[in-house]
Amino acid sequence: MAHAFTVLLTEVTGKTGSALLRLLEKSNVAVRAMVRDEGGVARLGSTSASVMVGDFDDPGALEEALDGVDSAYLVTPSSPEAAFRQIRFSELASSIWSICRSSPPMKRPRSASSAITPRWSGGSASSE
Questions:
Q1: Mean pLDDT over residues 73-101, rounded?
Q2: What's the CA gap between 128 and 125, in Å, rounded?
Q3: Is-contact 121 112, C-beta < 8 A?
Q4: Global confidence as pTM
Q5: Entry's Pfam families (predicted)?
Q6: Structure confidence by residue, pLDDT tens digits, 94-115
Q7: Contacts with 91 (C-beta within 8 Å, 6 or more apart), sequence order
Q8: What was the pLDDT predicted at 52?
Q9: Structural domains in the chain plus CATH codes
Q10: CA 99, 101, 107, 112: dihedral to nearest 10 degrees?
């Protein structure tokens, strides 16, 4: 069955990510699951999600993860770099999705997480 909507889930092996994965699978939503390493792939077990290994510090991996998805659920590991990783991810997603939005007939809905993530321009946060 073709899916009309694809969601990227990060940190999908955690408590909220795994619960959201199961909910989306039951709702017949296509899911791309990004895990940090091969151990994450094994922890996921049986899933209908398209699973990829990706690192938040690798822009190429993030671009690959975002390619073809309509929305993203972003959770980063707790670390001193977490805020930087979230901002970089949000900016990359926004740039990819704005390119898609400017090329009719494709329309990309905004993700709930990007709606609450501050946009950084000129060193200050701004909301949309």
A1: 80
A2: 10
A3: no
A4: 0.70
A5: NAD_binding_10 (PF13460)
A6: 877 765 544 444 444 444 444 4
A7: 119, 120
A8: 95
A9: 6-117 (3.40.50.720)
A10: 90
